Each structure stands twice: as structure tokens, then as C-alpha cells.
Amino acid sequence: MSTPKTPVASAGPTAEPADVLAEAFAAAYSVRPVPAAGPVDTTAICNTPAALEELDALWKAVVQETRTRGNDIHLPISLAFAERLCRAYPDADAELVRVATLLHDTGWAHVDESRIISEGFSGDWRKAAIRYEHEQQGCNVARRVLPGLGYSPDFVEHVCEIIDGHDTRPVARSLEDALMRDADRLWRFDRAGIALASSWFGMDPATYTERLATEIVPELITQAAVDMATADLNRSNALLKTGVIR
Prior knowledge:
Organism: Arthrobacter cavernae
Largest sheet: none
Protein name: HD domain-containing protein
Structural class: mainly alpha
Order of helices and strands: HHHHHHHHHHH
CATH topology: Hypothetical protein af1432
Oligomer: single chain
Pfam families: HD
């Protein structure tokens, strides 16, 4: 299954300033979706939960941030996908991908909760002001909790570079950024993700899974993510009887 190349800022009098990092990443990984260099696991994500213990201290530091917008469902599933993606792309800095994935949506706990659904999941939601706000707040969380857990200042800033723009910037700037973005989308294809996220958008499961196929699969940057999403979508559609319950 092929998908369109992730867009890169184009030249021209009306173009936005060139994103040098994004252009460098696009040049280094010119084939899209990016082929996997390692094994790709397309079994149900519940078969391989995220590694135990290694990030327990970080999870405990952000427990309160997991209690908003279903983060206690979204973040652990996304992290499990991130770990699979890192095995498929061994050149990536797995620690950076894992930590950025765990923290990427913690900022939702520090914005006006009444606006999350009304602004963050309706209309032109990708450009909603609250999405920029949650990215900035997520960086604040990272800068607050990571130094005390022994992470270096440089590492913390690399995490923040990924969190800042993960929803609102249209392009990835590194392989680690790409894997976090794909992990953030992949959780939606699991039955738990469909159950939770379809309600955010006010859609029934059949309508939502159609949206996943037509809008979200083409956004995936890596071939491993496309393969995982396709397998999960097939399983979820069969389980939820979306061909019948419409």
C-alpha cells in the first residue's frame, strides 16, 4: 500500500520560510512511506505492551497529566506502538522516541478542559489555538519532570523539539519525530482507540474507521506504521462489525 509523500515546505513567493530540518529529513528518507530496516510486528498491540519498569518513574511523575482527554488510554498504547516502531527502525534514538511519546500529550492537562472537545476536535482542528497551547504546555511538563529524573538538558530540549509541533507542524524533522508522530496516530486503529476517539469526533465506529482509512493512513510516514495500521484496521472492522452496523 502506498501513501503520498509527507509534504515539505515548497519554494515560492507565498511559501512559508523553509524548514531546514524537515527538508533534510525528507532528503535523507526520500522514499515514502519510509521502508523498515528491522522486523515489523502487525499483531494486536495488546500482545506487546510497553516495556515495564524502565519508565515507571516518569509515568509516576505525570500521573495527573494522564487523567485528561483519555491520556491514560492513549499514552500507554501509543508508547507500545512507539517501541514496535523503534524495533522496525533501529537507527532511531529509541530512548528519545519513547520519552517524547510518553509526554507528547501531557499538555492537555494544563489547558481549559472545556475547550478540548469543542475546539480541538471540531472544524479545522489541526489549526485550533488550543492545539498549539497543549504542545507548549507539554514542553513545560517535560522541562519540569525530566531533569529531576536524570535526563540531560540537551535530551530534554530534543524531547521538546518533537512535542512542539507534533499536531500543528505538517512535517517531521527527524526519524525520531516521524516515529513519535506515527505512534500518536497508530493507537487510533486499535479497538480501544476507536472506541475513545470516535466519541471525540461525534462519529459512529463505521464512520470513524472510514476516516482512518481515507485521512489518517495517508498521513503515516513509515511503511511499518502503514502495515500496522492496515492490520489493526482490518481486525477492528471485523470485530466491530462496521460493515453491518452503520
